[in-house]
């Protein structure tokens, strides 16, 4: 996958992962991909909900050693 | 579908502040137009000094440690972030008069208004939330 930006939001509590994700997506172009790393369990539901709200696509989602990773393609 | 979220902040405790600012920042980060109307004790949430040390509910002081451990941002940080994301703050004129407060007592960038100012914004907002 061609990732444009990687955002490390590990250790941050709600609502910071969403705020940081928004800013990172604002900074990339339509069609580009943001890779987000978070440890906030709320993000499992929040990041897909946030992406759906803006029409962005979650290409992939993984969970390893308490780190959640999302690949978001900007609408 | 409306793109507005209207929030009434009428309580001044630490938990109240987190409820208000977490929802406000999350909504603003989801590209909603957000306005918070601060009234009565809710004015503590934008008061320059008051917001630095908002009270915990009695008997729940131990939770302070939980806040630190969870790496939750402070209330002044969340307030600043809300404004940076475009959240509009309206302080209730009537409550300010009753409590002897002026715009100088509050963080920069707020508006002062009455109930109608808020209602005008909230008339087509969904949801409108009260804390």
From TrEMBL, chain A:
Pfam families in the cross-refs: TusA (PF01206)
Domain annotation UPF0033: ranges: 7-31
SUPFAM superfamilies xrefs: SirA-like
InterPro entries noted in UniProt: TusA-like, TusA-like_sf
Gene3D superfamilies registered for this protein in UniProt: TusA-like domain
PANTHER family with a match to the protein in the record: SULFUR CARRIER PROTEIN YEDF-RELATED (PTHR33279)
Family recorded in the similarity comment: Belongs to the sulfur carrier protein TusA family.
Name by which UniProt lists this protein: tRNA 2-thiouridine synthesizing protein A
Provenance organism: Psychrobacillus insolitus
Native organism taxonomy: Bacteria, Bacillati, Bacillota, Bacilli, Bacillales
From TrEMBL, chain B:
Pfam family, one: DrsE_2
Superkingdom as given in the UniProt entry: Bacteria
Transmembrane regions: none
PANTHER family in the record: CONSERVED WITHIN P. AEROPHILUM, PEROXIREDOXIN FAMILY PROTEIN
The protein's name in its UniProt record: Peroxiredoxin family protein
Native source species: Psychrobacillus insolitus
Upper lineage: Bacteria, Bacillati, Bacillota, Bacilli, Bacillales
